Amino acid sequence: MLASMAGLSQASLTQPSYNQSDIRMNQIQVVGTHNSYHREINITTERAAFEEFHDNEKNLYYSHTDLDIQLEHQSVRSLELDLHSDVEGGLYANPLLWKMANLTNDTIPFHDPNMTKPGLKVFHVTDGDPHSVCHTFLECLWQLKGWSDNHPNHLPILIDLELKMEAPACGKGGICADEALHWTLPRLLNVDSEIRSILPASKLIVPDDVRHGNLTLEQSVLQHGWPTLASARGKFMFFFDNEPDSGPPALYAGPGHESLQNRTVFTNGVEGQPDAAFIKKNDPTDTVELQRLVRKGYIIRTRADIPLDTVLARDTTMRELAFESAAQIVSTDYPAYGMSSRWDWDYAVRLPGGAVARCNPISAPEWCDDGALE
To answer: CB–CB of 131/109 below 8 Å?
Structure first.
């Protein structure tokens, strides 16, 4: 009896000790929202002009709630914001859509004095889709910081930043400014400046935090891994999702910054390049390829649906492939039930039990516990 108990005691001493705090950022899977800021146009005053402006307007008929509400009540742990440069201020304060709809100062849908001030603006389409839960980047950042301060142990929140480059109504009375079409390096560095003006270093995960010694950023994440959840809780990580050949990423990761040294935002990298750590793969169809990238150590973002096509088709194939791909971020426009019900179909993208995260099916160790993540 004593010998048996001694044997059990000895066995327990040699049992491997698993610490959930050792789980890494890339070893979980979360749901994020696509165009997280987006609010649908006013159906009464803007719809006719809106349908004249857009060729496929039905895919823009969706709305998200405030960013902090998505984090608090919809189990969202990744967000997307579209950024428009506005160095002087006022460039986007009077979109052509409102002129087409014959709106006056008394009938326009919103008055935000910050739209006339210098600083990055947040909305979807220049001149044609201006509504947002936060019209400026600073306003969005304040929402995020306020929620984070009240939930200091939250999982790291990954923020997708799309740098918009468009002037679709140029020549039709809309904006034609170069600033709407091109991002110079000073304009890109304004993104860094605005982030750091609201979020202290203690709330950020930046490339310098991940890179090791003389290794490139890519070598660092593939050889040494990402920060642990324990060290990343309460923090935000930002990444540009623009295609690597679109211009801005090359400027941002230019000479002396190939591994994003002294930068605040990660880029949408190309495998084999020094800045490759995050990779966007919006189409989850090739699950084998996405799983390969996850196994190597990259953080991957994919999408589960395309509004409104997915809902009208009543097809969940894209959603199932997105989760199967093991991409760490599965992005959707429907993070909660009820959002698609106006189209007579109950569809949502959620983890089992409405959890905010689960152990990644490809990259997490076997002993990872879903319930211990957050």
So the answer is: yes
Rounded Cα distance between 362 and 265, Å, is 26
CA distances from 154 to 127, 225, 231, 301 (A): 36, 20, 11, 20
Question: Who contacts 32 (Cβ-Cβ below 8 Å, separation ≥6)?
Answer: 76, 77, 78, 79, 80, 158, 160, 301, 329, 330, 331, 332
The predicted model scores a pTM of: 0.93
Identify the helix (H) or strand (E) that includes residue 322: helix 317-324
3-class secondary structure per residue, 238-275? EEECCCCCCCHHHHHCCCCCCCCCCCCCECECCCCCCC
Q: In angstroms, rounded to a whole number, what is the distance separating the alpha carbons of residues 174 and 339? A: 32
CA angle, 186 then 244 then 163, to 5°: 45
Q: Which residues lie below 8 Å from residue 310, measured CB to CB, with a gap of 6+?
A: 304, 318, 319, 347
Residue 284's nearest CA partner among 240, 320, 245, 315 is 320
Question: What are the pLDDT digits (tens) for 49-100?
Answer: 999 999 878 889 899 999 999 999 999 999 999 999 999 999 999 999 999 9
Q: What is the 3-state secondary structure (H, E, C) of 159-200?
A: EEEEECCCCCCCCCCCCCCHHHHCCCHHHHHHHHHHHHHHCC
